[in-house]
Amino acid sequence: CGDVGILAIEIYFPNQYVEQSELEEHDGVTKGKYTIGLGQQKMGFCNDREDIHSLCLTVVQRLLEKNKIGYGEIGRLEVGTETIIDKSKSVKTVLMQLFKPSGNTDIEGVDTTNACYGGTAALFNAVNWIQSQFWDGRYALVVAGDVAVYPPGPARPTGGAGAIAMLIGPNAPITFNRVRATHMEHVYDFYKPDLSSEFPTVDGKISIECYLSALDCCYERYCKKENRPDVSFDDFDYFCFHSPYCKLVQKSFARLCVNDYFLYSDKEQSDSKYPDLVPFKNLNLKETYFNRELEQAAVKCSKTSFEAKTLPSLMIASMVGNMYTPSLYGGLVSLLVNKNAESLLGKRIGMFSYGSGLASSMFSLQVSKDAGRVESLLASLGDIPSRLEARTALPAAEFTTILKAKEDSYNKAPYQPTASLDTLTSGTYYLIEVDPQYRRTYGRR
Ligand code: ACO
After folding, report:
1. What is the C-alpha to C-alpha distance for residues 163 and 91, in angstroms, rounded to an integer?
2. Cβ(33) – ligand 1 distance below 6 Å
3. Closest by alpha carbon to 351, among 160, 226, 180?
4. Domain Hydroxymethylglutaryl-coenzyme A synthase N-terminal spans what residues (predicted)?
């Protein structure tokens, strides 16, 4: 079947947030560290009424309802998440309760986990299924969701929460280009070995180096696989990145420019294209992850391209935070929300997915030239800016109290949530209770 890709997409983020500027003051760090240094404006978070199940139930229900897709029309459902509240039972099986009234239980796929990469693995699986001999003609549904929380300290402002659902099928407004490049490696940069805690064990500096080196590997491989000399970031009209925090994305975009400069076969041409990088020409690329002078020169010479190609993709990342598995796809949604159909038709979108540990891939999406298809996709995303605006701001002290209470009650059974249902928007799924056997029940607001 032709033009397999993303037919529809829906995002859910919690209805409350904390201002990063207030958090700076509350945490006693210097003014500007989170807002300018990390590039984050607001951080979304869940109270005890929401967990990974409820986030995913909400987003799947909304996607299907909004796009008038019947539950019987889904033949595969994949979930990418690193928010593990059960070591055996998948989030996918929890989502099956939505399908029960339709009688559709013939749905392949379970959960995929590797830090922030699970959503991408799920997406690849879904596309592969539709292009395989096993496809039965129905849609695939990809869900990526996480609750990203860190302990008090330098990583805390890089949290977030949310879920994305993508409907995959033929004749799509956004399809997949042929080339994919992957880099996977065994590292301990960010991992969750303590099963009694929701928090990761993280070495911030190593995680940044791992992220940037994975980007280098994927980009070089991607360019080689394109089998054309001198592929450069100019070949992409837009570029979305997994966003742990927005400043790292700007540095990553600049890193593509550094790669172009070092990989370009015509050295004279690359010197004249990137004069600011000439002083660094003799450096070993692998030793430059924390070279501030090179970084600043690259940020400077890629600034205009960054603002045109990537900045529009950072709206949700800066207003909600790192949602982990949905982060990259929140970038795609932001880009679609901030561009009109005319500026998207026929365009190529670079995508870089990174999950610590580590698994990373680069691929590219192709926006259809069919205005009707693209316009209907964009129309379904039109409510996102107002939903972001309508959220409730909670003081930093209350955010901290809520996170502490969640930490203290983590994995407790029985458990009765206490947050008011008034904190939730209409149609949101919420946790009713965890019974003594750890079974969770949900209601819908
Ligand atoms: N005004 C403006 N900028 C400031 C200020 C200020 N007052 N104070 C600090 N900054 C800048 C710093 O110069 C630094 O900028 P730079 O990165 O360009 O050097 C930036 O703000 C951050 O400050 P640091 O001191 O480097 O921050 P810290 O080390 O305390 O924490 C970190 C940052 C490591 C990212 C931490 O938040 C973390 O561990 N996060 C989780 C891990 C993570 O997200 N890793 C990324 C990939 S892995 C993944 O996706 C989970």
Report:
1. 12
2. yes
3. 180
4. 3-173
Which atom of ligand 1 is nearest the CA belonging to 153? Answer: 30
16-54 pLDDT tens trace: 999 999 999 999 999 999 999 999 999 999 999 999 999
How far, in Å, from the CA of 38 to the mean position of ligand 1? Answer: 6
CB within 8 A of 43, min separation 6: which ones?
17, 18, 20, 23, 157, 159, 160, 320, 321, 399
Over range 254-263, report the average pLDDT. Answer: 94
Residue appearing with tokens 């206490």: 418
CB 145 within 8 A of CB 321: no
Report the CATH number at residue 27. 3.40.47.10
Ligand 1, atom 15, residue with closest C-alpha: 37
Tell me: pLDDT of 228 over 80: no
Q: Would the CB of 325 count as within 6 Å of ligand 1?
A: no
Catalytic residues: 82, 116, 242
- Ligand 1 atom showing the smallest separation from residue 356 Cα: 48
Parent domain of 60: 5-444
Q: Kindly state if the Cβ of 36 falls inside 6 Å of ligand 1.
A: yes
In 10 A of CB 350, how many CB atoms? 23
Verify whether ligand 1 is closer than 6 Å to residue 32 (CB atom): yes
Ligand 1, atom 28: closest residue by C-alpha: 154
Residue 41 CA to ligand 1 center (angstroms) comes to 14
Atom of ligand 1 nearest to the CA of 30: 7
Ligand 1 centroid distance, CA of 366 (Å): 33
Give the dihedral sign, CA 406/150/333/90. Answer: negative
Using CA positions, which residue lies closest to atom 11 of ligand 1?
Answer: 37
Q: Is the CB of 199 under 6 A from ligand 1?
A: no
Give the model's pLDDT for residue 225.
94
What would the pLDDT profile of 326-348 be if each residue is shown by its tens digit? 999 999 999 999 999 999 999 99
> How many structural domains does the chain have?
1
- What ipTM does this complex have? 0.98
pLDDT in tens, 155-187: 999 999 999 999 999 999 999 999 999 999 999
Instruction: Supply the pLDDT for residue 231.
Output: 79
Mean pLDDT of the chain, nearest integer: 97
DSSP strands (E only) in 127-283: 139-148, 160-169, 174-184, 190-191, 201-202, 238-241
Distances in whole angstroms, Cα of residue 361 to Cα of each of 27, 124, 136, 172, 411:
35, 10, 28, 22, 33
Given this model, what pLDDT does residue 400 score?
98
